[in-house]
């Protein structure tokens, strides 16, 4: 059980992964969900949607699948999909611990998830993850680390992460917030047997919020695989919500703005995997067009002009509703 068996060259689409946050629970922070999901977001309806997406992703060449304890029943849906397709042995599975899902399958809940990076939460959630995914769990990541996270300093947590490494399970972290770069660099300082403790780092990076770029390049240089999340800024870089320049560039390339937004990230030499958070097969197909899209230097330069200050980006993100 190790992320190290992932090959970005396995298929043309292998550098795009599928994240299950948008279909593992009825509520999520993403624009356009009323049109994306069935009106009746039952467990069975989202299980069926998750399996449709997983089938389509695998058929298209996607080989990294990303979930988390806090994504409602996403781990369960993924585990069922894997059990029903025993011949599918070429995918790499990553999950995350540190947030507990608390919405009780409601999209209008006051609180959807609660963050806790204690050793006790690790123990509980790792047991829950492995009860579902068993030996298919290749990568276990700390969810949404910030510079203040005790997960980077608590000896009990670090002992457990080292124990996973010793057992052959790779460990990683995801980051969030305007100080992602600081969190990444703090994580790079943690060691295991002479090398970095973490095998991967998963961070928000897109044309609106590129502030973690230099730190992600440092992580790549240190041997970590960089996984990019929120490449479409929770839907703000897709469809009609995309900035005019993004839509204009997409029109010239004959794709959607979502593909251009993801391709702009894939052009970064340090980007290992860029996640699609598609909620429909049509969205997934549009996202996967990024794998074959080569943007010219002028268009890449124009897209860099869309960047906003990190504090502003994260304030605007936090104001987006769960829907």
From TrEMBL:
Residues 48-306 form the NADP-dependent oxidoreductase domain. It holds the Pfam family Aldo_ket_red. InterPro entries: AKR2_Oxidoreductase, NAD(P)_OxRdtase_dom_sf, NADP_OxRdtase_dom. This is Predicted oxidoreductase.
């Amino acid at each position: 059980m190790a992320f190290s068996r992932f090959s970005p060259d396995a298929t043309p689409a292998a550098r795009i992964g599928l994240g299950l946050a948008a279909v593992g629970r009825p509520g999520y922070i993403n624009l356009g969900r009323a049109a994306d999901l069935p009106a009746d977001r039952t467990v069975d309806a989202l299980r069926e949607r998750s399996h449709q997406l997983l089938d389509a992703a695998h058929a298209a060449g996607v080989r990294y699948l990303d979930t988390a304890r806090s994504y409602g029943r996403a781990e369960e849906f993924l585990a069922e999909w894997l059990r029903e397709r025993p011949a599918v042995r070429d995918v790499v599975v990553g999950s995350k611990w540190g947030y507990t899902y608390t919405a009780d399958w409601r999209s209008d809940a006051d609180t959807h998830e609660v963050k806790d990076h204690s050793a006790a939460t690790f123990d509980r959630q790792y047991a829950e993850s492995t009860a579902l995914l068993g030996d298919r769990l290749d990568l276990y990541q700390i969810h949404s680390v910030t510079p203040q996270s005790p997960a980077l300093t608590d000896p009990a947590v670090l002992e457990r992460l080292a124990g996973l490494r010793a057992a052959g399970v790779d460990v990683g972290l995801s980051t969030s917030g305007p100080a992602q770069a600081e969190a990444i660099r703090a994580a790079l300082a943690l060691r295991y047997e002479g090398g970095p403790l973490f095998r991967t780092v998963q961070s928000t990076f897109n044309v609106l919020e590129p502030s973690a770029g230099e730190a992600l390049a440092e992580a790549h240089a240190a041997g970590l695989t960089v996984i990019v999340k929120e490449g479409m800024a929770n839907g703000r870089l897709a469809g009609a919500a995309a900035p005019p320049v993004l839509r204009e560039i997409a029109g010239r390339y004959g794709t959607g703005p979502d593909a251009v937004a993801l391709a702009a990230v894939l052009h970064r030499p340090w980007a290992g995997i860029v996640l699609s958070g598609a909620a429909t097969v049509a969205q997934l197909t549009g996202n996967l067009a990024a794998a074959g899209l080569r943007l010219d230097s002028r268009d890449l330069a124009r897209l860099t002009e869309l960047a906003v200050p990190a504090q502003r980006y994260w304030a605007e993100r936090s104001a987006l509703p769960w829907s």
